[in-house]
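Protocol step 4 of 5: obtain the predicted structure for the target chain.
Materials: sequence only (see below). No template structures provided, no constraints applied. The aim of this step is simply to have a reference model before the mutagenesis design in step 5. Sequence pasted as it appears in the construct record:
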Amino acid sequence: PNTLTSDKNYQYVVRTNPTNKAQTDVLGIVGERYVPVQNEELFAFGDNILDGGGRWETAGSIRGGRVVFGSLALERETVLDPSGVADKVKTYLLINTSHDGSIAIQASITPVRVVCANTLNLALGAKRGKNAIKQSFKIRHTQTAEGKIAVARETLGLANKYMDAFDAMAHAMIQKEITATQFNDIILAAYPKPEKDSKGALKKWENKIDLINDIYTGEFNGMIAGNAWGAFNALTERLDWYRSSRGGNNESILAAASGFDPAINAEKNRLLNVVRNTLELV
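Step 4 output (structure tokens):
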């Protein structure tokens, strides 16, 4: 755009507006060494992973095109209590990048409970060292065909290692039976009753507790109510699908449900720890 000024220490990342070809959008201001990752590069990386089995499921952008993402459905699937409720969890790999310099290409392993589309981005096991279990990681940028294949294989290896840990945790949780009293203890540990009723805090808390109880015994979670897995999914389903959007912006809900809202992912990890600690699960 004519309104932009130049400076040798930084550069603008721009795009042609996809709906108005006469309009140029400024996506970010970056340093002079910044090399933009084109959308084609992001999805080409995903195509390399698909050679190992899987399919593209979704793709899109948020923040005015500044963040671009795609999700790949991998072939690995978990079935909890296969002779009973047969609760399915599919494995997705979410890849994303930004055009404003905030992130490079990243990948996140995202288990999704099929019946309600809950995303379960969870930190599991060791985070450092030889036995580290990575849930999200940066993707090395390489130009050679051999390098791209190696990165794709490395990514699939990390996905399988993470899902091994996830499977063990989920099976332990669905086998842990709980009472109504224990579920109430979990809710109170996660969301303590406010001591003061300032700005309607008590009513908001009561509405939240009622909603969680409704989800726990409702259409998608009633089949797994009565165990730790059901309790945890009732808490996470509220985060994914029953929150009001921040500032009226539905992109915040999309980011949460897609699995790359860091605040929501942190909250899900907190809730997992609440459930496990309350029930004394290892």
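Step 4 remarks: The longest helix spans residues 145-175. The longest strand covers residues 67-80.
Proceed to step 5.
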